Amino acid sequence: METVRAFVGSYHWGYFLLDEDGEELDQLTLSSGDELRLTLFNVEADAAVEALPQAVRTNVPSSDERARRNEQAVQVPRGTTLDALHDAAEAAYPDHSLAILDDELLGNGPGGPGQGPGGGHHGPHGGPSGPGNGRGPGQEPGGGGPGQGPGGGHGPGMPGSCWGGVCGGTLAPPAYLWHHSTVPTELGFVVNTTGSFGFVCTVYCGYGHPYMVEPGRVVVSEN
């Protein structure tokens, strides 16, 4: 068994993945039986970012680089600008989450504003995955990420958890990445399944929220 260590940052509207040396990765590759250890953070959580190892902290993509990535990924409607949409989202919806789901659940990616994986409504008026819920596929109301959110949550080895194996297509249930967090969120579990899995935000975060669906970020093969 090997331990795979990485850092995942969220921003409006995407994720970036860094190794312990601060090198950005497109994908994590593991074998079934390996331990996956992730440190998660929201780039708007200044104290959490400051708590990262220096090699990681200094290689967090700049705001200009994040804006460039958004320009490539996010379609902008007529009559507005990406900057305006981005600024409005950061002010009104500053939080994110990270769930790791089977790519088969992710379809073809963004389904347009208000649509998330599995067709759930992710718009500002609530619904299965709207604000005040922030839950993803397979989660019960009030369920949170590990140590996060109302009612606590399930961590590795706890009854009812979906860690490491595919439980309703979930490799890891949502971990909430609050903009006011003072420390990063730490996840660690043994992966006991195979397949290709993607990152998904289950908390509405403004216009570009549907684009926070990134398939193929974690690939697990047989030993």
Structure description:
There is one protein chain. The protein has helices at 46-50, 54-57, 63-73, 82-92, and strands spanning 3-11, 14-18, 24-25, 28-31, 35-42, 96-102, 170-177, 185-190, 195-200, 213-221. It is an alpha+beta fold and 223 residues long. The protein has one domain (3-221). Strands 3-2-1-5-8 form a five-stranded mixed β-sheet. Strands 4-10-9-6-7 form a five-stranded mixed β-sheet, with no helix packed on it. It is globular and about 50 Å long.
Task: Tell me briefly what this model is.
This protein is of the alpha+beta class and 223 residues long. It is built from four helices and ten strands.
Q: What ranges have pLDDT less than 50 throughout 5 or more consecutive residues?
A: 111-161
**Ends: how far apart?**
9 Å
| Physical arrangement of strands within the biggest beta sheet | 3-2-1-5-8
* Strand proportion: 25-35%
Succession of helices and strands: EEEEEHHHHEEEEE
What is the arithmetic mean of pLDDT? 80
Structural class from helices and strands? Answer: alpha+beta
**What global shape is seen?**
globular
| Total of DSSP H or I helical runs spanning 4+ residues | 4
Rg over CA atoms, rounded to whole Å, is: 16 Å
Number of domains: 1
Number of strands: 10
Helix proportion of residues, in percent?
10-25%
Biased composition (Gly residues): 108-157
Region (Disordered): 58-79, 102-157
